[in-house]
Write a structure and sequence with these properties.
2 helices, 8-stranded antiparallel barrel, 181 residues, 2 domains
Protein backbone atom coordinates (compact mmCIF):
# COMPACT_ATOMS: atom_id res chain seq x y z
CA UNK A 1 0.00 0.00 0.00
CA UNK A 2 1.36 3.43 -0.97
CA UNK A 3 1.71 6.23 1.51
CA UNK A 4 -0.72 9.13 1.16
CA UNK A 5 2.06 11.62 0.25
CA UNK A 6 3.32 9.31 -2.51
CA UNK A 7 -0.20 9.15 -3.99
CA UNK A 8 -0.45 12.95 -3.95
CA UNK A 9 2.94 13.28 -5.62
CA UNK A 10 2.02 10.76 -8.32
CA UNK A 11 -1.28 12.55 -8.92
CA UNK A 12 0.67 15.74 -9.72
CA UNK A 13 3.06 13.80 -11.91
CA UNK A 14 0.12 12.36 -13.90
CA UNK A 15 -0.93 15.90 -14.85
CA UNK A 16 2.33 17.51 -16.02
CA UNK A 17 0.52 20.52 -17.54
CA UNK A 18 -0.78 21.49 -14.11
CA UNK A 19 2.66 20.94 -12.62
CA UNK A 20 4.43 23.12 -15.22
CA UNK A 21 1.77 25.84 -14.94
CA UNK A 22 2.13 25.82 -11.15
CA UNK A 23 5.91 26.13 -11.35
CA UNK A 24 5.65 28.94 -13.89
CA UNK A 25 3.13 30.78 -11.69
CA UNK A 26 5.31 30.29 -8.61
CA UNK A 27 8.33 31.65 -10.48
CA UNK A 28 6.45 34.70 -11.76
CA UNK A 29 4.98 35.48 -8.36
CA UNK A 30 8.38 35.08 -6.74
CA UNK A 31 10.12 37.20 -9.33
CA UNK A 32 7.52 39.93 -9.72
CA UNK A 33 4.94 39.59 -6.92
CA UNK A 34 6.45 42.04 -4.48
CA UNK A 35 8.92 44.07 -6.53
CA UNK A 36 8.40 47.75 -5.59
CA UNK A 37 9.10 49.00 -9.13
CA UNK A 38 6.27 46.85 -10.46
CA UNK A 39 3.70 47.76 -7.80
CA UNK A 40 0.10 47.69 -8.96
CA UNK A 41 -1.80 50.94 -9.50
CA UNK A 42 -5.19 49.27 -9.05
CA UNK A 43 -6.69 45.96 -8.10
CA UNK A 44 -9.29 43.98 -6.23
CA UNK A 45 -9.44 42.02 -3.00
CA UNK A 46 -11.87 40.21 -0.73
CA UNK A 47 -11.82 40.97 2.96
CA UNK A 48 -13.18 39.03 5.95
CA UNK A 49 -13.55 40.96 9.21
CA UNK A 50 -14.51 39.70 12.64
CA UNK A 51 -15.41 42.17 15.39
CA UNK A 52 -16.72 42.49 18.93
CA UNK A 53 -18.95 45.52 19.51
CA UNK A 54 -19.71 47.62 22.55
CA UNK A 55 -22.78 49.68 21.62
CA UNK A 56 -24.81 52.07 23.77
CA UNK A 57 -28.36 53.14 22.88
CA UNK A 58 -30.13 56.43 23.59
CA UNK A 59 -33.88 56.58 22.95
CA UNK A 60 -35.02 59.94 21.63
CA UNK A 61 -38.69 60.46 20.72
CA UNK A 62 -39.46 57.89 17.98
CA UNK A 63 -35.79 57.37 17.10
CA UNK A 64 -32.93 55.44 18.66
CA UNK A 65 -29.33 56.57 18.47
CA UNK A 66 -26.76 53.83 18.83
CA UNK A 67 -23.02 54.24 18.97
CA UNK A 68 -19.88 52.57 20.10
CA UNK A 69 -16.57 51.02 19.28
CA UNK A 70 -16.01 47.78 17.42
CA UNK A 71 -12.62 46.04 17.51
CA UNK A 72 -11.39 43.02 15.67
CA UNK A 73 -9.36 41.65 12.81
CA UNK A 74 -9.34 41.98 9.03
CA UNK A 75 -7.95 39.26 6.77
CA UNK A 76 -7.42 39.46 3.00
CA UNK A 77 -8.84 36.16 1.68
CA UNK A 78 -8.26 36.83 -2.03
CA UNK A 79 -6.27 39.53 -3.83
CA UNK A 80 -4.96 40.64 -7.21
CA UNK A 81 -1.70 41.70 -5.50
CA UNK A 82 0.19 44.27 -3.44
CA UNK A 83 -0.40 46.16 -1.27
CA UNK A 84 -3.38 43.97 -0.31
CA UNK A 85 -1.59 40.64 0.01
CA UNK A 86 -3.66 37.46 0.23
CA UNK A 87 -3.49 36.03 3.76
CA UNK A 88 -2.50 39.35 5.33
CA UNK A 89 -4.21 40.08 8.65
CA UNK A 90 -4.50 43.38 10.49
CA UNK A 91 -6.20 44.87 13.53
CA UNK A 92 -9.33 46.93 12.97
CA UNK A 93 -11.16 49.60 14.97
CA UNK A 94 -14.33 51.44 14.01
CA UNK A 95 -16.49 54.03 15.71
CA UNK A 96 -20.09 53.19 14.77
CA UNK A 97 -22.93 55.75 14.59
CA UNK A 98 -26.51 54.53 14.03
CA UNK A 99 -29.82 56.34 13.67
CA UNK A 100 -32.72 53.91 13.86
CA UNK A 101 -36.48 54.28 13.49
CA UNK A 102 -39.18 51.65 13.03
CA UNK A 103 -38.74 51.85 9.24
CA UNK A 104 -35.09 52.76 8.74
CA UNK A 105 -31.63 52.17 10.12
CA UNK A 106 -28.69 54.31 8.93
CA UNK A 107 -25.18 53.18 9.88
CA UNK A 108 -21.97 55.21 9.43
CA UNK A 109 -18.62 53.97 10.73
CA UNK A 110 -15.15 55.44 10.17
CA UNK A 111 -12.57 52.66 10.58
CA UNK A 112 -8.80 52.35 10.85
CA UNK A 113 -7.15 49.11 9.76
CA UNK A 114 -3.57 48.77 11.06
CA UNK A 115 -1.29 46.13 9.52
CA UNK A 116 1.75 44.46 11.11
CA UNK A 117 4.06 47.14 9.59
CA UNK A 118 2.07 49.83 11.41
CA UNK A 119 0.62 51.22 8.16
CA UNK A 120 -3.00 52.35 8.40
CA UNK A 121 -5.85 52.11 5.89
CA UNK A 122 -8.82 54.45 6.41
CA UNK A 123 -12.31 53.17 5.55
CA UNK A 124 -15.80 54.56 6.11
CA UNK A 125 -18.76 52.17 6.15
CA UNK A 126 -22.25 53.29 5.15
CA UNK A 127 -25.35 51.14 5.31
CA UNK A 128 -29.09 51.80 5.18
CA UNK A 129 -30.33 48.21 5.22
CA UNK A 130 -30.64 46.11 8.38
CA UNK A 131 -30.09 47.01 12.00
CA UNK A 132 -27.34 46.42 14.50
CA UNK A 133 -27.42 43.78 17.20
CA UNK A 134 -27.95 40.04 17.43
CA UNK A 135 -29.92 38.53 14.55
CA UNK A 136 -29.54 41.54 12.26
CA UNK A 137 -27.76 41.64 8.93
CA UNK A 138 -27.49 43.91 5.94
CA UNK A 139 -25.50 45.11 2.97
CA UNK A 140 -23.58 48.33 2.59
CA UNK A 141 -20.53 50.07 1.12
CA UNK A 142 -17.06 50.86 2.38
CA UNK A 143 -15.28 53.89 1.00
CA UNK A 144 -11.45 53.72 1.02
CA UNK A 145 -9.98 57.09 1.93
CA UNK A 146 -6.21 56.62 1.87
CA UNK A 147 -3.97 55.96 4.80
CA UNK A 148 -0.32 55.91 5.78
CA UNK A 149 2.70 54.09 4.34
CA UNK A 150 1.75 51.67 1.57
CA UNK A 151 -1.90 52.80 1.76
CA UNK A 152 -1.21 56.51 1.16
CA UNK A 153 -3.20 57.86 -1.82
CA UNK A 154 -5.33 54.70 -2.15
CA UNK A 155 -8.99 55.24 -2.90
CA UNK A 156 -11.74 52.83 -3.78
CA UNK A 157 -14.91 51.15 -2.65
CA UNK A 158 -16.13 47.84 -1.29
CA UNK A 159 -19.52 46.25 -1.19
CA UNK A 160 -20.01 44.40 2.08
CA UNK A 161 -22.42 42.24 4.00
CA UNK A 162 -22.58 42.20 7.81
CA UNK A 163 -24.10 39.66 10.16
CA UNK A 164 -24.56 40.09 13.92
CA UNK A 165 -24.22 37.13 16.31
CA UNK A 166 -24.85 36.51 20.03
CA UNK A 167 -22.40 37.87 22.62
CA UNK A 168 -21.72 41.11 20.66
CA UNK A 169 -19.91 39.45 17.74
CA UNK A 170 -20.27 40.53 14.12
CA UNK A 171 -18.66 39.48 10.84
CA UNK A 172 -18.36 41.36 7.55
CA UNK A 173 -17.40 40.02 4.15
CA UNK A 174 -16.34 42.59 1.55
CA UNK A 175 -15.43 42.70 -2.12
CA UNK A 176 -13.23 45.72 -2.92
CA UNK A 177 -11.77 47.62 -5.86
CA UNK A 178 -8.98 50.13 -5.31
CA UNK A 179 -6.61 52.43 -7.15
CA UNK A 180 -3.54 54.39 -6.15
CA UNK A 181 -3.02 57.93 -7.40
Amino acid sequence: MQKKSEKSLKRWMIHPGFHRAGLTLAFLLGAFGSTPGLAQKSGEFRLLQSYVHNYETVEHSDESFIGGLIRGTSTIVESSGDPFTEGMSASARCLVFVSETVDLSVVNAPCTITDTDGDELYLVANRGIGGVGEGNSGAGRWSMEGGTGKYANITGACSYRVEYFPDNFLVTYSQCRWEKE
